[in-house]
Specification:
6 strands, about 170 residues, about 45% strand, 4 helices, Nuclear Transport Factor 2, Chain: A, alpha+beta, about 25% helix, NTF2-like_dom_sf
């Protein structure tokens, strides 16, 4: 793979963008969260895509109502070129992490990867597109048995389904 020509400063700003996203999610700071997205951004989870600031706001407000508590921890970020785009203005990324989440009083654990498209606008990096994919997500009391199962996405009250990755 050809090295990506992204400055160290831009790499650090992109790492800060994903950190701010996780903190805003966990702090339920909807205004900060929305400010991290381009006005025409998209967010995807489980095949559902929401568009623009209003759609993304409504999606996250619903998510915030569903969870009593969340703790998102990013592990790493890999940047990739976008065909036909300058890496100083647009770059793709993959972010791995895990989370502890409490919907309906039941502790869940999850491992995720985001597939991102970042855009630089007025000197600031923003999310243009963010797609959430789960390696697993399940109640903690099912983790020992469920981790090795093919149906690793087990939200309390929902039918188990295959994980998005791998």
């Amino acid at each position: 793979m050809t090295p990506l020509d992204v400055t160290v400063e831009d790499r650090l700003l992109l790492q800060e963008l994903i950190a701010r996203y996780s903190l805003a999610r966990d702090d339920r700071d909807i205004d900060l969260l929305i400010s991290l997205f381009a006005p025409d951004a998209q967010f995807e989870r489980a095949g559902r895509v929401v568009d623009g600031a209003d759609g993304i706001r409504e999606f996250f407000l619903g998510s915030m109502r569903r969870y009593d508590l969340t703790n998102h921890v990013n592990h790493g970020q890999v940047l990739d070129p976008v065909e036909g785009a300058s890496p100083r203005e647009r770059v793709a990324g993959r972010v791995s992490g895990h989370a502890e989440l409490v919907p309906s009083g039941i502790l869940h654990v999850a491992a995720y990867r985001y597939h991102d498209l970042y855009v630089k606008s007025e000197g600031r990096w923003l999310f243009q597109r963010r797609s959430l994919n789960f390696i697993y997500a399940m109640p903690v009391d099912q983790f020992a048995a469920g981790f090795a199962d093919n149906l690793r996405v087990r939200w309390h009250g929902d039918q188990p389904r295959p994980a998005d990755l791998p």
